[in-house]
Structure formats: structure tokens, C-alpha cells
């Protein structure tokens, strides 16, 4: 694999399918540099926030611009590090129903639908008005190139963001629900010594050690200890021991879809018809009652589409002032070095919605009721339990290993 000390070339594999929209979000998916550039910037911001804190946003933006540039009208600057994608034409396309077993189930009655995976990839399903989404699978090449005259430190920080993306995150739609996980297969060199991109771990416990070592190495590259200058919850997603908790499931699976399907089933059953959320929302729809208490399910992300079959009513719970709020909980499949798979959970304990915002329940465009914003207790319950009624991961015997990196 050719390259130089100013040009990193990494071969990446789509461990789980990439739902990346092209000109038509429901049409042919396209793998383009902007999707990666935006995701890399997100992970760099999360890493920088851990050492700079969340109070000095101007200083944080300046640190970001020193790696990926700035589009600000007051301080526009080209990116010191360019991002290129090669080999995307060799990727294969797969649609939602093939992934979840829907097509095979209709053709072969003995085939089992992957209900948990279908739940996690829910937004990619076919609707009354839109076709199902397609995703990309396979491998491709990503290049991070340092522009002439720029500091090597910029490439190191871009590489740190890529390491975080390929170990903790994903790209595209449903990335926080298991889709879009990419991992490195090979690389021409490592801008940060002793921090390879490919996963080396062969067991979940080894993966915990690898993540702990990598996170500490990145902190050293950023040049500072974790900052005490932040609020809890933090103002945005930051990688800091006090506001970002990471676990590895101490179980392995033969295929990525087996891993996500089990977690998806647990997640679905934990949230489905959850009390008192179910009765509170039903009261608003059926009897025009007020939304007097927080809907705890909303803590996993907004908007939240809901269908009450007994009432034949479809409604949406969303933020009053914002279009959406990404889930604070990232669910990711990881391919281990021996070819088996496990699951990673990343919980960012950042502010759910800005002060003064509310939840609003809508039917079409009509507002049915407003209510308070939930806390994050339900996320903690799902991960660590106990919950004897709906059963947490722990209640189901899914043991998690925590990554400690502070």
C-alpha cells in the first residue's frame, strides 16, 4: 500500500451496511468524502472537548479548524488535512428487507425474520409513501493527506479522529443503532506510533484493553489531561471519563447481524408498551389528557414515531424547538481479529435538549400536547438494570465489561 509520511491510506471494511443517501436519500446510496469529513470532525470535537472542556466554544472551533478547516464567514480557512475516498465503485448494494430477512421470509416460510435488526434499522423500512432504503457493503480506501506546509500535528489529530470512528462510531443513517460501522483492514503507516487502526483484539476482554490503551494514547496526542472545566451533563458529546461511558459485551457471535439482532430484540422489548409512558400517551390521544409527566422513552432520541393499533392512530413525539435529537446511546458491532463479532455501547451523557425546550406530541402537523423533557435514568436502567418487568441487559444475562480510561 503506497503512501508517505504526509498521506495516510487505510483500507476500510463496512462491518455493517452503510445507509448513505445520494441525490435521492431513498435511491442509490453514494459513498462520498463529505460524509466522512463530517463524521471525523464530530469525533475530533468529542476528543478535544474532553481536554478543552465545553465552556470555551470559540477555542474549540479554532482547534477544530487547525485540522479540518473552517467554513465560518468570519474566519474561513481551508482544511489542512484533505479526505479522499477511492474504490467505492466496487461496493455492493443491499436493501433493508434483505438485511432483516423480510424478502427471504416471504419466499421461504422457514426463514426467521431478524426482528431485532429490523427494529434498530427501523427508519430504513418501506413506508406507505417511500421505498425502502438501500445500503452499501464491501471495502474501500480512505486517504488523509496533509497539505504542504502544514504541521504534522494536524495529521495526527485527524488520525486520532479516524481511530475513534473505526473503533467507537459509524457513518450515515442509523449509525447510532448499529449501521455504518467501518473498520480498518490495512494501512500504509500510523501517524501516531503504536496506535494501529485495525482491531487487534481477539476477545471482548482484549478489546476493552485495546480501547483503554487507545483512548489514553489519543489524550496524550492532544497534549493535555482531561479537563475539569465542563458541566454534567456536558453541552455536547465529549469523550471524558465523567460524561462518556463505554462498555463491551462479554459475548461473541459468528456474524454481525446475529450480534445486533440480539441487542435489538432486547432494546425493542425493553421499550415496547413501557409503563407509564404507554398509558400517558394513550390518554393524550384518546381522551385529550395533558402530557403532565416526562415520557422516559424519549431519552433514547427524537423524533419518536408511535402507533397505537387499538386506536388506529399514528403520532410523533418530538422536540418543540428542534427537528431531532440523536440518541445519546451508540450501539455498534465490532469485528474482532479472529473474525467473530461483539457489541460496543457508548453512552454520551450530554444535555438532552437546551434549557426551556419541551416535548410535543403531534398528529400530522397538529399539536396534541406539550410536556417536560425526560432525564436519562431509563438509559442507565437498560444498560445496568435491574428492571424485573421489562428486563435490562443485565437481567437477560448479557454481561458488560466497562472501559475505564481516565
Keywords:
10 helices; globular; alpha+beta; Alpha-Beta Plaits; 4-stranded antiparallel sheet; 406 residues
Walk me through what this model shows.
By secondary structure, the protein is an alpha+beta fold. It folds into two domains: 7-240, Alpha-Beta Plaits; 256-403, no CATH class. Helix content is 30%, strand content 21%. It is built from ten helices and 14 strands. The protein has helices spanning 33-52, 57-68, 96-100, 102-107, 115-120, 152-168, 204-222, 256-271, 277-287, 377-384; strands at residues 7-14, 81-86, 92-95, 134-137, 139-146, 182-187, 244-249, 304-308, 313-319, 329-335, 341-348, 359-363, 366-371, 400-403. It has a four-stranded antiparallel sheet, covered by helices on one side. It has a four-stranded antiparallel sheet with strand order 10-11-7-14, sandwiched between helices. Strand 12 and strand 13 (366-371) form a beta hairpin. The model is unreliable at 104-111 (pLDDT under 50).
Beta strands, count: 14
Level-1 CATH class name of the largest domain: Alpha Beta
Kindly name the structural category: alpha+beta
Largest sheet at a glance? 4 strands, antiparallel
The coarse silhouette is globular
Number of helical stretches of at least 4 residues: 10
Quote the beta fraction.
15-25%
Helix content: 25-40%
> Helix and strand string, N-terminal first?
EHHEEHHHEEHEHEHHEEEEEEHE
Q: What is the CATH fold-level name of the largest domain? A: Alpha-Beta Plaits
Can you summarize this structure?
The protein has 406 residues and is α+β, with helices and mostly antiparallel strands.
Amino acid at each position: 500500500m503506497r503512501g508517505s509520511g504526509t498521506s495516510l491510506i487505510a483500507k476500510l471494511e463496512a462491518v455493517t451496511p452503510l445507509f448513505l443517501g445520494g441525490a435521492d436519500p431513498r435511491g442509490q446510496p453514494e459513498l462520498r468524502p463529505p460524509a466522512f469529513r463530517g463524521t471525523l470532525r464530530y469525533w475530533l470535537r468529542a476528543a478535544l472537548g474532553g481536554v478543552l472542556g465545553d465552556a470555551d466554544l470559540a477555542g474549540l472551533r479554532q482547534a477544530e479548524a487547525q485540522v479540518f478547516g473552517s467554513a465560518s464567514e468570519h474566519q474561513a480557512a481551508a482544511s489542512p488535512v484533505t479526505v479522499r475516498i477511492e474504490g467505492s465503485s466496487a461496493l455492493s448494494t443491499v436493501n433493508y428487507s434483505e438485511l432483516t430477512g423480510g424478502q427471504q421470509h416471504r419466499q421461504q416460510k422457514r426463514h426467521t425474520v431478524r426482528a431485532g435488526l429490523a427494529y434498530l434499522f427501523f427508519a430504513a423500512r418501506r413506508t406507505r409513501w417511500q421505498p425502502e432504503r438501500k445500503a452499501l457493503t464491501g471495502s474501500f480506501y480512505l486517504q488523509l493527506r496533509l497539505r504542504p506546509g502544514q504541521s504534522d500535528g494536524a495529521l495526527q489529530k485527524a488520525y486520532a479522529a479516524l481511530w475513534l470512528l473505526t473503533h467507537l462510531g459509524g457513518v450515515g443513517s442509523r449509525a447510532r443503532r448499529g449501521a455504518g460501522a467501518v473498520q480498518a483492514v490495512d494501512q500504509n503507516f500510523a501517524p501516531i506510533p503504536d496506535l494501529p487502526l485495525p482491531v487487534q483484539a481477539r476477545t471482548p476482554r482484549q478489546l476493552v484493553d485495546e480501547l483503554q490503551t487507545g483512548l489514553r494514547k489519543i489524550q496524550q496526542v492532544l497534549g493535555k489531561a482531561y479537563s475539569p472545566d465542563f458541566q454534567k451533563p456536558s453541552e455536547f458529546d465529549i469523550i471524558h471519563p465523567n460524561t462518556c461511558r463505554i462498555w463491551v459485551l462479554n459475548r461473541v457471535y459468528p456474524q454481525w447481524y446475529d450480534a445486533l439482532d440480539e441487542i435489538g430484540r432486547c432494546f425493542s422489548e425493553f421499550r415496547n408498551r413501557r409503563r407509564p409512558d404507554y398509558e400517558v400517551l394513550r390518554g393524550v390521544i384518546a381522551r385529550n389528557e395533558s402530557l403532565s409527566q416526562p415520557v422516559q422513552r424519549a431519552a433514547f432520541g427524537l423524533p419518536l414515531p408511535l402507533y397505537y393499533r387499538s386506536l388506529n392512530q399514528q403520532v410523533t413525539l418530538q422536540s418543540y424547538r428542534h427537528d431531532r435529537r440523536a440518541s445519546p446511546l451508540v450501539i455498534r458491532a465490532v469485528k474482532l481479529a479472529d473474525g467473530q463479532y461483539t457489541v460496543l455501547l457508548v453512552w454520551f451523557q450530554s444535555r438532552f435538549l437546551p434549557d426551556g425546550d419541551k416535548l410535543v406530541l403531534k398528529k400530522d402537523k397538529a399539536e396534541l400536547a406539550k410536556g417536560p423533557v425526560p432525564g436519562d435514568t431509563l438509559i442507565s436502567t437498560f444498560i445496568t438494570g435491574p428492571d424485573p418487568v421489562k428486563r435490562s441487559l443485565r437481567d437477560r444475562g448479557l454481561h458488560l465489561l466497562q472501559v475505564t480510561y481516565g
